[in-house]
């Protein structure tokens, strides 16, 4: 099945897809101009139409990430409230798949612990 058009900046989409391809078993989806990953209906990564990548992390990991990378909670749009469990990935970190991959793995593992929202198991 063909993916829907992602309207985020192409360079950011390429980096996001490279990151996702670095972890086996992750499948991307797209909707409303952004791409995302989900497990059992729970989204755990997203790239907004503005090119901001968000990764869902559990408590503790999330706070450590925010402090270590001097970033903030993810917002799909600058006008929207922050997503409580998602961190915004700084551009310099998005370009470093090797450094970011462990966070993606933690996010994927965390998504697997969440109660199903009735979505597909992938």
Description of the structure:
The chain has a five-stranded antiparallel sheet with strand order 1-2-3-4-5. The protein is built from four helices and five strands. The two termini are 15 Å apart. Helix 1 crosses helix 4. The chain has a single domain, classed as Yope Regulator, Chain: A, CATH 3.30.1460. 34% of the residues lie in helices and 20% in strands. It is α+β, with helices and mostly antiparallel strands and 122 residues long. It is globular and about 30 Å long. A hairpin with a 2-residue loop joins strand 2 and strand 3. The mean pLDDT is 89. The protein has helices at 10-21, 61-68, 91-94, 97-113, and strands at residues 28-31, 34-39, 42-47, 53-56, 86-89.
Summarize the helices and strands and which ones pair or pack:
Layout lengths: L9 H12 L6 E4 L2 E6 L2 E6 L5 E4 L4 H8 L17 E4 L1 H4 L2 H17 L9
Antiparallel strand pairs: 1-2, 2-3, 3-4, 4-5
Helix pairs in contact: 1-4
Q: Give the assembly state of these chains.
A: single chain
Q: Can you write the helix and strand succession as a string?
A: HEEEEHEHH
Instruction: Tell me the CATH superfamily.
Output: YgaC/TfoX-N like chaperone
Task: Output the radius of gyration.
Answer: 13 Å
Q: Major beta sheet, specifics?
A: 5 strands, antiparallel
Computed structural class? alpha+beta
